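Good morning C.,

I know you're traveling, so I'll keep this short. The sequence:
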Amino acid sequence: MKVAGIIAEYNPFHNGHQFHMKETRKRIGADYCIVVMSGDFMQRGGPAVVDKYLRAKCALENGADLVIQMPVTGSTASAGEYAGCGVALLSRLGIVTDLSFGCEAESDEEKEILLEAAGHLHTEPAGFQTILAEGMRQGMTYPAARLNALSSCFGDDERKKRILLCQLNAPNNILALEYLNANMGCDRRMTPCMITRAGASYHEENLSEADRFPSATALRNRLFETMETVGGPSISFDGLLEYMPASSLNHLTDYLSGHRPLSEDVFSDMLFNALLTQKDALNQNYSQHEELNNTIRNKLETFSDWKRFALDCKTKNLTLTAVNRHLTHILLGIDDPMYSLAKGYDHAPYARILGFRREAAPLLSEIEAHATLRVISHPAKALREMDDHEKALFRLDLRAGDLYSYAARQNSDAIVSELRHPLVYL
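The tokens, ready to paste straight into the viewer:
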């Protein structure tokens, strides 16, 4: 049986994601496709624009057979740990044969260089850590310093260095490199399947009428613009129809008739309260970010909203994304003990099912027979059966989900608890 695994955010689901799913199934000849999807909070820091159940439904309607939620400690981690979490989840299901992911590399040579670079990253040849540390001392961000150290692994081969540096200027290739590296460390390795990204750049901020494959960033921007300029019961997202599968757009329109799309600023009051409550214990509870914690304390009295505060806290050797991830961890209470606990499981202590296709029943039976981690379909039942460590991590996921649902609602209706929320069935 051929089973493809994909790691994704689908924030929101668009034509590029549909293309990747179709290409994955075709190239691999997959009998089934499993997606590990970020839940309520994203790798860039901050919340998903729409909820995870809607995004899971869109995935299932466009080629996925099973959608599993990535735990929040993994979905809000650095690129390496995010990739490691997703790969570990897929590998520990025991049945995934192929790992599919997008990349910007177009030629076989470019893909081979990414694979070679992943090998260097996995083994870390002599001198790698020294060059990395020197780059950090010179004021480079961690990603820039690591790229510099990785480039040195290619010795005098200037052609490969140039190709590598060019390739790793693209965010999708950075993640591709991390997926390859994480897969090399798995007990049960999967066959990599690199699919060249179609359409706009990952960070492209505006939609193009000439490009039906947008970036998720551009789609999010258009969603917020539409909500702000139109609003009310007559709101229409018809202008997005050429960028999203029709069914996905219909679900999105229905959802936004009763919920608001979320950005970091919706959580500004919650974040300020968390920072105010924890400010004197930041270095004790989040010890890996002492310099950033000091900046947060010094600037807290100027706090107006999340986005402006994050920009104020950014430093020359910290990316804005890293600042946002740290603020998300403070908001959610992902402190040192919790993060260390999660890392002990590679951020993959269990696999929580968000939804599946009924035709995928044989797939679920195979997972039950071969998985080496707890598979959760009934959260309340699973919580009763977990040990204390699993419970602590799962309660963190449940809390993040409930916070998200509360923030997304537009009226006083009660939210559906994460413990009782039904699975998505198709």
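Safe travels,
E.
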